[in-house]
Amino acid sequence: MYIGIDCGTQGTKAIIVDYAQKKVIGVGYAAHDLIEQSNGRREQHPNWWLDAFNQALSIALKQAQTLPHFSPRLVKGIGISGQQHGLVLLDEDDQPLYNAKLWCDTETADENAALIERLGGEEKAFHQLGIMCQTGYTASKLCWFRKHYPALFGRIRKIMLPHDYLNYWLTGNFCTEFGDASGTGYFDIVKRQWNPTVFAQIAPELNMEEVLPTLLSAETQLGVIKPDIAAQFGFNEDVVVSTGGGDNMMGAIGTGNIREGIVTMSLGTSGTLYAYTHKPLQDLPPMIANFCSSNNGWLPLICVMNMTSSNKQVINLLNINVEEFNHLAQQAPIGSEGVTILPFFNGERVPPLPNEKARILGLDSSNFTQANLCRAMMESATFTLRYGLDLFRQAGLATSQIRVIGGGAKSVLWRQIIADVMNTEVVCLLEDEAAALGGAIQAMWANGEGELDMLCEAFVHLDPDSRCSPHQKNVESYEMIYQRYLAYLHSLR
To answer: Helix, strand or coil for residue 470?
Structure first.
């Protein structure tokens, strides 16, 4: 038995996977609170994640224990997936010094711009890291904390990412892996090591060797679970904890995206596109994050800040639920009768518009309907991902199939819109908790259950009933509508 944990923005998910039967036998979930302000602040207290971990795993174990063949003592390993980029700072007593600033926090836009300038501008910054520092990455959060809380800054003893914090709590080992580390903004993605020159520009008072975690390759056993936590859940004390990784890296494993040609699209709070490569790509546009993967390759990635969170704005405005939102969107025609939304409710990363606001365009007295508003939001969110997919294609990445995950993937209409806008086949997975599944599979890999490609073949299954192929007439219509969207977008600059 293996456990996968996904500590996301909205909550923590836990799954229990039966290795022998090759299926999930227990699922649990616990929600997170979110601290948010109009200035772009998005924070959570790290201890909330521990509470959610305990709740979600307890629920999953309770479900699994209804099966006669299951016992907590059969659990062999745990793999942790965590939201990327979050800044967790611990003091001399291993207590958080401040809330964790999250991936979606745009309060640090000024600090990010200043850091890039100190590094010599965009080109020189990119050359030093192999990746462009973006607002939302960990580096600018550390700059922000140094500026606003200098006394607390001097008490920093450990700098972690969210999944590192959970691993540290589970094992007592202060480590991380290349995939999540590559989203910090002070990690060299080509050399796969911390960059001392860049880190010195961010935190000159701190000793990099002491405050940053030890780097491990993805298949490594990070450690074993602490005895008190093992006793709490009824586990044996030899339960292995794998290195884990960022949610996108674990989502790649959980969707079988460990070879070239596949694109994973996540329709969650944010939207992401990522594809595996066996070597770092050269001459990428800065908007493509050339991350390392959590299976010892690379994972070029596009992240847009506003996805299902944008839909939620319309859902709340109209006082409807998700099902009603989808039903209304279905009633509107392709193109929403000219209504277009620039859905930048929380700024945007791709394209880089951290301080931009959302806009509704093309309205008149005849097309201002609830149905058009719902469909326009769905279409416009898809266009932000199309913008990213075009960057992938221009960089030479193969995009023969899109494997879509996240809450938005449940909408048949949205999947078809994606297929038509991208002119690419779209398919879902039978197990929709891809990041948690990726964590469980990585734990199997670390525990010697087999090679990763064999494990993905055994545990990752496409849902044949979910396939959506592009309709050529719709593809042609959406191409014109997408050009309208781009015209609005370019008018912002």
So the answer is: coil
Residue 237's SS3 state is coil
Tell me which residues are annotated as active site.
247
Residue-level pLDDT at 92: 97
User: Which residues are registered as beta bridge partners of 98?
Assistant: none
Q: Which residues are annotated as a binding site for substrate?
A: 84-85
Residue 158 tokens read as 């450990």
In the chain, the largest separation of any two C-alpha atoms, in whole Å, equals: 67
**Contact status, residue 81 vs residue 177, Cβ threshold 8 Å:** no
Lowest pLDDT segment from 211-220, 256-265, 280-289: 280-289
Contacts of 220 (CB under 8 A, 6+ apart): 177, 242, 243, 446
Query: Residue 261's pLDDT is what?
Result: 86
Domains of the chain by range and CATH? 2-243 (3.30.420.40), 256-429+461-492 (3.30.420.40)
**323 CB neighbour count, 10 Å cutoff:** 9
Instruction: Find the range with the poorest average confidence among 246-260, 345-359, 427-441.
Output: 345-359
DSSP 274-302: E--BSSPPSS--TTSEEEEPTTSSEEEEE
**Rounded distance between C-alpha atoms, residue 136 and residue 102, angstroms:** 7
Residue type, 399: T
pLDDT of 283: 78
Average pLDDT (230-258) is 97
Backbone angles phi, psi at 335, to 5 degrees: 90, -5
Residue where the block lists tokens 């745990």? 78
Q: How far apart (Å, rounded) are the C-alpha atoms in residues 158 and 96?
A: 9
**What pLDDT, in 10s, does the model give residues 94-109?**
999 999 999 999 999 9
Does the pLDDT of residue 464 top 90, yes or no? yes
Contacts for 205-212: CB closer than 8 Å, 24+ residues apart: 205/153, 205/154, 206/156, 206/159, 210/157, 211/156, 211/157, 211/158, 211/159, 212/159
End-to-end alpha carbon distance in the chain: 53
Q: Are 248 and 234 in contact (CB under 8 A)?
A: no
How many Å apart are CA 460 and CA 447, to the nearest integer?
Answer: 18
Kindly state the tokens that stand for 117. Answer: 């300038």
